[in-house]
Amino acid sequence: MNFDFSDDQKFLRDEARKFLEAQCTSAHVRAVLDDDNVSHNDEVWQKIVEMGWLGAAIPEEFGGLGLGMLELCVIAEELGRVLAPVPFGSSAYFFAEAIKLAGTEEQKAEFLPKVADGSIVGCLATTEGPGALSAASVQTTAKDSALTGTKVPVTDGDVATHAVVLAKEGSGTGLYIVALDQDGVSRKSLKTIEPTRSHAEIKLDGATGARLGLESGNGMTVLEQVMNRAAVLLAFEQLGGASRCLEMATEYAKERHAFGRPIGGNQAIKHKLADIYVKNEVARSNAYYGAWALSTDAAELPEAAAAARVAASEAFWFASKENIQTHGGMGFTWEVDCHLYYRRAKLLAVQAGSPAVWKEKLVSALEAKNAA
Amino acid sequence: MDFTDSTEEATFRAEANAFLSQHLEPKKAAAIRSGRRDDYLQRAKDWQKVKAENQFAQITWPKEIGGRGGSPMQQVIWNQEESKFDAPIGPFAIGLGMCVPTVIAFGSDEHKQRYVQKALFGEEIWCQLFSEPAAGSDVAGLKTKAVKDGDDWVVNGQKVWTSGAHYSDYGILLVRTDPDVPKHKGLTMFIVDMKQEGVDVRPIHQASGGSEFNEVYFTDVRIPDAHRLGEPGMGWKVALVTLMNERLAVGGSPGPDWAEIMDYARSSGSMSDQAFRAKLADWYVAAQGYKLTKFRTQTALSKGETPGPENSIGKVITANHLQDICNSAIEMQDHYGIISDKDHAPADAIFQESFMWAPGLRIAGGTDEILKNIIAERVLGLPQDVRVDKDKPFSAF
Predict the structure, then answer these.
(1) Does the structure show a pLDDT above 60 at A225?
(2) Residue of chain A whose Cα is closest to the Cα of B368
(3) Residue B29's domain spans which residues?
(4) Is the pLDDT reported for residue B250 higher than 50?
């Protein structure tokens, strides 16, 4: 039994934490929050690129560090703690994982080294309107590698250079790699509840795309697998954010005095923070299991990823809203960071399918397993 | 990360499993909280003797006192393997897990000679006498008093919620010996002979209908001073050691879990209910969260480290989880769900039985509220609750 990260991985975590606490402060996040014309913090982004983290889970033959998925999980948790205002997840969890999973050798050779060295930024373009994503809801079409339709919202869609786009092809669906700087693509930035990560509406009007992999018609199937992988990585980001919320609330509850004593001496606050702690531990244990399944390509990945995502979405949501509540009026001011976590918690909870979607995936996986 | 045993761990697990297979039947899936046949106590004593004779009774105890001299990890492995079998271990859990370790920590050499081996070999059973009608969460507020009379102490008062008092031979008894100092400082711990005159054990008729717990009345019970554990007035410190010795919670679930209600839902056509599916996902995530957290604790033990506070989440999760699952299972059966008669009720009425047991589980061994206080104070470092009686003599209240 060794259900923990290795000493090397813990060292990476400690180093990443030190680095990010110095290089990605609240001021760096707020520089993006307070400027509508900025899509991300490029100073932070360039430093992260230099660290090589984008290639942590990309094999050395494709220009990455070739460390592994566990190392990427460790980095994800640290990025989540500081609310890194950069398109890391879009490029490393979604775009790179899609290409690693389903791309041809040529596609891997073409794109992965550029993701790793930051010369391109990838994203995933699937959503077209309100409601859960399904094959039937996809309106964007791909015909002879020409894509037409509108994707909205696309997380990091205005900073990205490339997107993996879900489209109808024939009677099925396909995933296409689309360069976003071509004539058939127009982009418009969107106002969202989470301005520290940019979002765009992307219109495709006969844009040229290259099918991801060789098989046609299997887009949703491949996307499911990409989502399972991204779900674990997102769970670590969520866990990082939830942990930070508990720390903030605990620190404040010890400092803030009312009625002559710290508010953290009252059971209403103590029990609230204990509830956050319990949810965070449940999320951490489920995230670790997801990391194990991801790093070993285990058959349990579908249920492990779903459980990790459900637990982490619940934990971050709960921790972020109760962190504001613990801070009282101060927590509802623009200047205090509580709302930044509340915003990020909701983005991460719905970005790759809402909790309801993942609960359904989880139960379906359990049904499939027990049917055998 | 991996979930496999080390070579040494695998060897020990195989050894444990072979021993268990030789002596016991594998546990049947639906036999949760059942199988308490009339001969349960005798079977428990017999099983305890066999374990002790083969050094499986207390894995971490030193060999000199009959243990195995093994690691905490080996104890975890043993517990995991034993829980797969129909092992009658209930009557010894509190005695060997909490009471006898207290005797070992604070007793004289004579105490250890007299009591440890007999308990280990299943000849004598112990109970723990702390809680009182007016001292539940606030145990240190207990009122049962002992007054010195020559070489004896004379005890009068009442204990409550004492598991197994009716079949116990000895107990560790926490009493007030000095009411004129603050409550934590006036307590003393004793070994008490449960069969002696003046000790009156009466079963509690629980809200669930069963009687697993007792009230114990003490009327002019004489206890020799030689049976004292620790100095007079040190009882609270001794009691904390008892409570710290609570077994590492690695046993099975206390009742039906997501898998049982999913089985029932499938057999009854309820899997198409979207609201139920969402709840099932939540139960799975919580159950996995608890199970995997124990794996993290086990990992720390396996590396020879002291586990962190993560294990403190256990009962807060499981007790509420059990209550919620049973409630849903009953509602899923609609009007029929009230039937607890096993001739009619699905799944041998385990949902109905556990529904009635669940409120007790949320209280026993630390209420939800006290456990959350413990997490808040000891893990998160938040201030203690206001304690207006903390520095005043107990007799002032």
Answers:
(1) yes
(2) A271
(3) 7-88
(4) no
B240 with B282, same domain: the answer is no
B239 and B321 co-located in one domain? no
Please give the C-alpha separations between residue B285 and each of A131, A290, B133, in angstroms, as whole numbers. 24, 12, 37
Mean pLDDT for B364-378 is: 92
Query: How many whole angstroms separate alpha carbon A348 and alpha carbon A344?
Result: 6
For chain B, where are the E strands, in sequence order? 126-129, 145-149, 152-163, 170-176, 187-193, 199-203, 213-224, 228-229
Q: Can you give the CATH number for the domain in which B374 is found? A: 1.20.140.10
Residues on chain B touching A363 (C-beta within 8 angstroms) = 277, 280-281, 284
Residue B246 has pLDDT above 70, yes or no: no
The total of other beta-carbon atoms located within 10 Å of residue A67's CB is 21
To the nearest 10°, report the CA torsion of A273, A278, A284, A286: -150
Confidence of residue A372 (pLDDT cuts 50, 70, 90): low
| CATH of residue B133 | 2.40.110.10
Q: Which CATH superfamily is domain A122-216 in?
A: Butyryl-CoA Dehydrogenase, subunit A, domain 2 (2.40.110.10)
Q: Which two tokens stand for residue A9?
A: 């991985």
The total number of structural domains that make up chain B: 3
pLDDT for B243 equals: 82
Nearest Cβ partner for A270 among B266, B277, B376:
B376
B272 with B375, same domain: the answer is yes
Q: Which two tokens stand for residue B24?
A: 């016991």
> In the prediction, which pLDDT does B31 show?
44
Report residue B253's pLDDT band, with 50, 70 and 90 as the boundaries: low
Query: Hey, what are A88's tokens?
Result: 């890391």
Average pLDDT of chain A, as a whole number: 97
Listed by start position, the domains of chain A span 7-116, 122-216, 220-371
Query: How far apart are alpha carbons B160 and A246 in whole angstroms?
Result: 38
Does one domain contain both B227 and B151? yes
Token readout for A207 is 């844009």
Of A250, A271, A310, the CB nearest to B281: A310
What is the reported pTM? 0.94
Per CATH, is A7-116 categorized as 1.10.540.10?
yes
pLDDT in tens, A83-99: 999 999 999 999 999 99
Domain finish residue from B244, B277, B309: B244
Give the C-alpha separation, A122 to A156, whole Å: 8
Residue of chain A whose alpha carbon sits nearest to that of B383: A265
Instruction: Tell whether domain A220-371 is in CATH 1.20.140.10.
Output: yes
Q: Is residue B393 part of a domain?
A: no
Contact B5 A1 (CB under 8 A): yes
Indicate whether B114 belongs to any domain: no
* Gap from B247 CA to chain A (nearest CA, Å): 20
- Looking at A261-300, list the stretches that DSSP marks H as alpha helix, in order from N- to C-terminal side: 267-296
Cβ-proximal residues to A311 (8 Å cutoff; 6+ apart), any chain: A235, A279, A282, A283, A286, A287, B285, B289
* pLDDT of amino acid B249: 40
Which of the listed residues B185, B217, B244 is the one where a domain comes to its end?
Answer: B244
User: For residues A164 and B282, what is the distance between their CA atoms, to the nearest angstrom?
Assistant: 32
- Give the residue among B254, B250, B261 at the shortest CA–CA distance from B293: B250
Task: Compare B254 and A119 and report the one with higher pLDDT.
Answer: A119
Residue A16 to residue B379: CA distance in whole angstroms: 25
Find chain B residues with C-beta within 8 A of A307's C-beta: 284-285, 288
Place B255 in a pLDDT band, splitting at 50, 70 and 90: confident
